Amino acid sequence: MYEGPVQDLIDELGRLPGVGPKSAQRIAFHLLATEPADIERLQQALQKVKEGVVFCDVCGNVSAETRCRICRDPKRDLSLVCVVEEPKDVQAIERTREFKGRYHVLGGALDPLSGVGPDQLRIRQLLNRIGTAVDGVDISEVIIATDPNTEGEATATYLVRMLRDFPGLSVTRLASGLPMGGDLEFADELTLGRALSGRRSM
């Protein structure tokens, strides 16, 4: 335990996701040795993130304007929507350069034990988007790209139930299976089972 502001800083840094006690301590002492101008830049960046970042009116992604860069892009396929949990998932899919549609960010996943139900997520906005032609184009396919964990699967199942009554709408789920470079002997049963059921012709 350190005295005063240093310990307060370590405690606050330790509350960040992925930052353990040792990392928090390292960052705190790095900041302590940093030039005042660098600290000021960090403070300004943090301030701007709270004041200058908005969420896209269409998809819910982080943006500097009312519509994000992806929703403003006229080359995107408006009939295709990929549903993800968080804005960071949008970036993960964008890095593949395979998806040419738009996104819908839920803002999390269903987790009743933590008090996250359908009303805490952007599910109603998704249903409204599908029920209304966006920029004059009807949505024909929704790809559910929630995380392959308990909460993500529960969210996917709930969405499928909500979306199956929309006429002419195709609802798909991201395939899951074996990672490239992996060995079969180290794959768990669920992953291997999904790889088998999701096999494709060569």
UniProtKB/TrEMBL annotation:
C4-type ZnF: 56-71
GO MF annotation, one: zinc ion binding
Sorted UniProt keywords: DNA damage, DNA recombination, DNA repair, Metal-binding, Zinc, Zinc-finger
GO biological process: DNA recombination; DNA repair
CDD domains named in the record: TOPRIM_recR
Record flagged with keyword Zinc-finger: yes
Transmembrane segments: none
SMART domains: TOPRIM (SM00493)
Signal peptide, first to last residue: none
PROSITE patterns: RECR, TOPRIM
Pfam families reported for this sequence: RecR_C (PF21175), RecR_HhH (PF21176), RecR_ZnF (PF02132), Toprim_4 (PF13662)
InterPro entries: DNA_Rcmb_RecR, Rcmb_RecR, Rcmb_RecR_Znf, TOPRIM_dom, TOPRIM_RecR
Domain Toprim: 79-179
Source organism superkingdom: Bacteria
NCBIfam families per UniProt: recR
Role played: May play a role in DNA repair. It seems to be involved in an RecBC-independent recombinational process of DNA repair. It may act with RecF and RecO.
Family statement drawn from the similarity comment of this UniProt entry: Belongs to the RecR family.
Protein name: Recombination protein RecR
Organism of this sequence: Lentzea flaviverrucosa
